[in-house]
Amino acid sequence: QVQLVESGGGLVQPGGSLRLSCAASGFTFSRYGMRWYRQAPGKERELVATITSTGGTTSYADSVKGRFTISRDNVKNTVYLQMNSLKPEDTARYYCYAGVFSSPYWGQGTQVTVSS
Prior knowledge:
The protein is mainly beta and 116 residues long. It has strands at residues 3-7, 10-12, 18-25, 34-39, 46-51, 58-60, 68-73, 78-83, 92-100, 103-106, 110-114. It contains no helices and eleven strands.
């Protein structure tokens, strides 16, 4: 079965960096685009970044453009989100997403808290 397992979240000071990972299994990872979403308390889930199956094309929400970088390793079946210059408003639970066989799959999420 499809599984997505996120890791790498934590508490970081404003201006700091974190790298999130999402390990995928149960499907042919290299054939599918991947996405990162986030959801802050009391807010709707927000699309943060996308990457195509080969990693050749990426896109970002305006709020993270220039600070976050999505990448993938199709040998390790893992997608990453490098987050730099973190701000308190980046505080949220971050989720990995894959649309496989026309069905949506989500990981359990990893919490990112940006606070001094």
